Amino acid sequence: MIENRSTLACNAAAKASGVTPGLSLAAARAIAPALRTVSRNRRAEQETLEGIAAWLGRFTPRVSLEAPQQLAAEMAGSLRLFGGLRQLERRLCSGLEALGFTVQLAFAPTARAALWRAAGGAAELDDLPVEVTGADPGILRLLRNLGVSTLGELLQLPRNGAARRFGQGLIDDLDRALGRIPDPRSAFVPPSRFSARLELPAQVAEAAGVLFAARRLLVQLEGALIARQSGIRGFVLSLAHCGAPTTRLAVPFSRASRDATHFAALLREHLSRLELAAPVESIRLEAAGFEPLHASTTGLFHDARDTGEGWTRLVERLSARLGEKAIQGLAIRAEHRPELASRAVALECLPGSGANSPPVDPAPEQRPLWLLETPRRLAEDEFVLLAGPERIESGWWDGGEVRRDYFIARTGDSSLVWIFRECERGWFLHGIFA
Fold first, then answer.
1. 295-302 contact pairs (CB < 8 A, 24+)
2. How many CB atoms lie within 10 A of CB 57?
3. Contact 411, 430 (CB under 8 A)
4. CA–CA separation, 12 vs 27, rounded Å?
5. How many CB atoms sit inside 10 A of residue 260's CB?
6. What is the β-pairing status of strands 70-73 and 103-105?
7. Residue 419's closest CA among 395, 383, 392, 369?
8. pLDDT tens per residue across span 102-115
9. What's the pTM?
10. Which residue, 172, 184, 137, 130, is CA-closest to 119?
């Protein structure tokens, strides 16, 4: 069970958890005249809870919200996967603190008991104050007047008399905490699209500061995708400015992914090319078009799938840094003439660019990838033939007829080149081998 205290004022958090505040607002102002109060934003509280619940999807699919500041998650089935209770607790604490939340974790056999333990500082159930039950203030005052201050003392009272005096609802909550009666809860289901907003603590004038804040939302997005066993092919980061239109930054991927580290690396490249029109006050991360993406098992040795993954991520980073049109692939065409045998295409259109396929060789023949746009005439004493010929006669049907004999040759500077001899025109340099 996780309790989120970071988004609420101290007074509001105490009231929400059923604990009577130690000071009234007037008394607090008398002690601290410079005290600044902020109106409660229940919508922001709900969005924060949903963001944490989405992140928890990486650990368990069974998470329920306990508005305004608590969540319950069933972790029994995840203990072995994450190395036991203590190891899981450390991962939960470090992950939520990295997201910017102050948390109180508590574990118990039932959700109600875990919620109460977290609200009471993770003490044992019998030692928790009765205020953690969230009962009506009148009932809490009556309990205090009767000298009942803890759940252990409340449980020692006769059930029938306690039910008549304090209401059956409180007794039922006690039974749910003890596991005597069921406590059905609605599981949180991450939406089919992701949208989360983050108010920055101060205006940010540099892209690096935007990236630091965006990491929180990217990690939440990753958790939502893991919970839905899905991936995305891109997201949009909106930057809200003071006195300037909102900046929308689209970050596309070559194929579906859900890796927050990869998301951050691509976002860094896009932000490095962005000039902020004005300081940023808040950011919003949006992603749609979820598609099924199941986890893959890495091979014992580096195989073709691993190579394809690294290739795809390299291309995505280059595209983000240099621009989408600066990085293209070559696709084979059914054409014998070398200058027409390939065409530039987007990399995701290449055969073999699927989820588990490495990049393919664009041509099976022993030909260079670098062709001169216009073949350059050569003198016979500028090269030495090494292999050939390969005869190409084609294009008579479209007016671009060629009749050439191609050879592999070496030039005077030891470059390995691809040349051809054309009837009655002589020798020409057409390509250069790497």
1. 295/229, 296/356
2. 23
3. no
4. 15
5. 21
6. unpaired
7. 383
8. 888 999 999 999 99
9. 0.63
10. 130
